[in-house]
Amino acid sequence: xxxxxxxxxxxxxxxxxxxxxxxxxxxxxxxxxxxxxxxxxxxxxxxxxxxxxxxxxxxxxxxxxxxxxxxxxxxxxxxxxxxxxxxxxxxxxxxxxxxxxxxxxxxxxxxxxxxxxxxxxxxxxxxxxxxxxxxxxxxxxxxxxxxxxxxxxxxxxxxxxxxxxxxxxxxxxxxxxxxxxxxxxxxxxxxxxxxxxxxxxxxxxxxxxxxxxxxxxxxxxxxxxxxxxxxxxxxxxxxxxxxxxxxxxxxxxxxxxxxxxxxxxxxxxxxxxxxxxxxxxxxxxxxxxxxxxxxxxxxxxxxxxxxxxxxxxxxx
Length: 316
Hints:
Layout: H1 12-21, E1 27-31, H2 37-42, E2 46-55, E3 68-69, H3 73-76, H4 88-97, H5 107-117, H6 122-130, H7 133-140, E4 162-171, E5 174-178, E6 186-190, H8 196-209, E7 219-225, H9 227-234, H10 237-257, H11 262-279, H12 283-315
Antiparallel strand pairs: 1-7, 2-4, 2-7, 3-6, 4-5, 5-6
Helix pairs in contact: 1-10, 9-10
């Protein structure tokens, strides 16, 4: 890994173990597969929502397209400007955690960081976050290993697909959108902690509706209380077992992300090709033709799924 900030995936397991590694207690993330207030209410307490979307590069924003800038809140709540590339995922989850200290045990390390930056303006908070060795090292430990890309040197152009994380959470009775690329928090009106699951859904819907109907590359994750605790509270052993199995799967996936399998895969492919060539002259061509046919079938199936999703979004 480089000494910069590497890209991390929008994945519930990654974000859950990331906050756990930062010392946060009894918090996990769950992916939201639908903009359904009733479903989100079932996950309560909901500390916030992390939203990943395609960012329109090359476009400035003088005023929000929804909500209003709250410059005063930018000094009274934890809001940090994003001052370095690829940090937005961790910055988004910290935007929720460091504003929900009354609801969440954020641990001594993050508590110390918040106290240290409490009097800073947003740009200095962003610099402090970007230069935090602890936070950067934990963040980078969940990045996918790649032998080809130095994320610290990579810069996006207007032609690239760029994705960005932002956070939504209720702070002091107001629903805020916290985006480090904006000059201040964006207020979406009055909202108590208990009302958040209901009031955030219309805001998210309006946000998504601003994109073309064919754009489906979004991801939503709710930051909630550890579901294993809820299962233990009600004595549901089956639910607890499912959650423990989920955690085991997340740990396995995280371990795989940290390893580079390019060399291993290359050797397997060379061995398979060598075997096919040794069989007879036609075996290799038959094998390649079958692979092409299977790829086309998968592409067709993916396209059909996307069309179904588009229709569902239109009806919603």
